[in-house]
Amino acid sequence: MRRREPPAVPPVPFSPAAARAHRAGLGLTPEQVAEGMAAHGIRLLPAHVLGWESGELRPNEEEFIALARALWCPAVQLMGVRPARLRDFRVARELGQETAARRIGIGLRHYQAAETTGRWDGDEEQTHALARVLGLTLRELVAVTGRGDELDQRLRQCVDGRWQAHVRAIARIVPVPEQDLAPVLTALQNEYQVSSHWGAGTWGSPAPAAREPEQPLGARFWELLERRETDIPA
Is the dihedral of CA 48, 52, 53, 54 positive or negative? Predict the structure, then answer.
């Protein structure tokens, strides 16, 4: 039986123009950049630096981090785009997988699987640590861990039933204290609950019509959460 090949890992986001601009701003030659990278354990020719700046070559993860250090700039500035994957956020923090896993408090294979699949199954404490170690906002955390659909389903269940039954599950997805989630979920239920849950009107009169939501449920959740002072910004 043929072995299944592991999924191809997309390259680290990289902006040749940003690398070129940072080098020029420091007044460094490609030779000096190569020497600076060697001090961080990556030895290569100045031609590699020129190849990256022209777009003919792309640095791998280790080369990318060493280049950022040699150019004395935050790694995210060399990406040219906002990080969109767990791996990208980790590299933007100039961390290797082993270091990230250790700081989060999980096994290396567990963390590697999360990067490969884009799925995360950590508990609330581990999820909080993931956001802190990788510098994620709560929105970014939900997006890069593949939990957006699950959060939407939980929020809908909160509106349709008792939010208290789902607050702990939501805290695993969005790691903030339950006392901060409670008022947010209460407000959502009051604003989005269907008219049948509001109770009937007086005898012979129809129940009051539910107010048409002005924005999607998920967007309103984040708006309400942003008003609270959470350890990790929304």
Answer: positive
Q: Residue 214 corresponds to which amino acid?
A: E
Token pair for 142: 């939900």
CB 208 within 8 A of CB 217: no
Q: Which residue, among 77, 61, 70, has the nearest Cα to 34 in the 3D structure?
A: 70
- Interatomic CA distance for residues 116 and 105, integer angstroms: 18
From 63, 90, 62, select the one nearest 76 (Cα to Cα). Answer: 90
pLDDT digits (tens, 9 = 90+) for 157-212: 999 888 899 999 999 999 999 999 999 999 999 988 753 344 444 444 444 444 45
Single pTM value for the model: 0.82
The length of the chain, given as a count of residues: 234
In contact, 180 and 210? CB cutoff 8 Å: no
Distance from C-alpha of 176 to C-alpha of 141, rounded to nearest angstrom: 12
109/107 Cα distance (integer angstroms): 6
Treating both helix axes as pointing N-terminal to C-terminal, what angle do 178-192 and 217-226 enclose, rounded to 10 degrees?
140
Identity of residue 87:
R
Could you give the count of Cα atoms lying within 13 Å of 224 in the half-sphere of its Cβ?
A: 20
